[in-house]
Amino acid sequence: MIPTQTKPFSPKCFFATLFLSIPFLIFLSQQTFTTTTTSDVLPGLKIRPGYTSYDTYIQKQLKKTLNPKLREVWKTRDWERKINVFTSFFDDLKREKLLKNESKALSIGARVGQEVEALKRVGVSNSIGIDLVPSPPLVIKGDFHHQPFDDDTFDFEFSNVFDHALYPEKFIGEIERTLRVGGVCVLHVAVSRRSDKYSANDLYSIEPLNKLFKRSELVRIRKVDGFGLDTEIVFREKM
Ligand SMILES: *[C@@H]1O[C@H](CO)[C@@H](O)[C@H](O)[C@H]1NC(C)=O
Q1: Where would I find the H helices in 48-182?
Q2: What is the pLDDT of residue 39?
Q3: What InterPro entries does the record tag this protein with (predicted)?
Q4: Is residue 130 part of a domain?
Q5: Is-above-0.70 flag for pTM?
Q6: In what order do the strands lie in the sheet with 105-108?
Q7: Nearest CA to ligand 1 atom 4
């Protein structure tokens, strides 16, 4: 039972309590802000501020993905040019035996599917892409923070959209969940330059990636020129 109040309501007392609780309320509001970023936990990786909810974040990402002008450019002027560049990246990975014809491959944040088409052209026929907006038949609908696949589905995963992850630990966690043991993940990231206005995080070194890949070992790093992204980093799942 709630005890009944004996004293009459005192406005003076009420406002005094309110006033005294202001510092506490300020403290609380700052707490919720800092817990939504990982920048304290991982030096070298900063989450961009300004996302008040997961929905505002998704809406902003959709704005780029659904932009009709961009989609048209991706499917026409950019199509062959990008496929050629990705084909040469994937050919290199095949020479190093990090990617095989029989690999089951996933491209994360595949837009209209140039990477998936490039995978197929180098002989990896069992390839699929995910993005927030599907682009059949190469790309199905899927959120990289919650991949629409079972555990241990793929032998190879590629992504050049790490900078769009609002929750980098989920982005990488989902890759490790859906990769088989021995599977390879290749990321193209921007380390020495800033990426676009739709990015949700900024990476200042590869160290945070080393920490986020908890069940994988670093295979190699090299400089690349990949559409504004400068570094290719390869991990292999070991347990
Ligand atoms: C892989 O696929 C490509 C393209 O279809 C083909 O040229 C190549 O011979 C295949 N490699 C192997 C090892 O089967």
Answers
A1: 54-65, 68-75, 77-95, 114-121, 168-178
A2: 46
A3: Methyltransf_11, SAM-dependent_MTases_sf
A4: yes
A5: yes
A6: 139-141, 127-131, 105-108, 154-159, 179-189, 229-237, 216-226
A7: 123
C-alpha to C-alpha distance for 188 and 160, rounded to whole angstroms: 5
Average pLDDT, the chain: 87
Q: Ligand 1 center to residue 94 CA distance, Å? A: 10
Q: What is the CATH number of the domain that holds 108?
A: 3.40.50.150
Question: What pLDDT is attached to residue 11?
Answer: 60
Convert the pLDDT of each residue in 167-208 to its tens digit: 999 999 999 999 999 999 999 999 977 767 888 999 999 999
* Residue 8 resides in a domain: no
Cα(142) to ligand 1 centroid in Å equals: 29
State in Å: Cα 122 to ligand 1 middle. Answer: 7
Structural domain count, the chain:
1
Q: Is residue 26 part of a domain?
A: no
Is residue 2, in this structure, part of any structural domain at all?
no
**97, 101, 102: which to mutate for ligand 1, most atoms within 8 A of CB?**
101
Pocket of ligand 1 (CB under 6 A): 101, 123
Structure-model confidence comparison of residues 193 and 228, the more confident one = 228
Domain with 191 in it: 34-237
